[in-house]
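Entry:
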Amino acid sequence: IYVYFGLPDIQQQKINSLSASGLYQAPQHNQYQAKLKLADGSVYANTGQVTFSDVGVNPSTGTTETRAEFANPQQHLRAGQFARIVLEGGQRLNALTVPQRAVIEGPMGKMVMIVNKENKIEPRPVKVGEWATVGKTQAWVIDSGLQTGERVLVDGLFKAMPGTVVKPVEAAGE
């Protein structure tokens, strides 16, 4: 079955910019894989393949019409059905990531709690990019606000108060 979706032009521009900077690598022959998240939150069992992307941008929506093809042997997918699509295959190079659970949404936007050199907690606003899977952990790519090597509080966020002294424990495999 064909699944048509609009690929936002702003995402395409970001990918082009990252590619030009050497920070993004598209899959070989631009063969992106596609996964469907169905309306009930489940993920469709079969992985699809992006088979078409229009050359123009729809000025009304700011998106490029794109098509992915999925095997549908049991006829679980039907025309007009709602689903979200997730494209896989591209790779951000040298990306700084933090587990999604470490990012807090506040009135001033997204932030993380860092543990400074004195082992005190301090809030830090961050600009996040896309979601990524790092090992088995769902993560945010951090576009700005953190530096490599800074310690980020991952667990116990709702008990953490700025200025509190903590005993940091290195997270295994994250």
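The chain has two domains: 2-92, 97-152.
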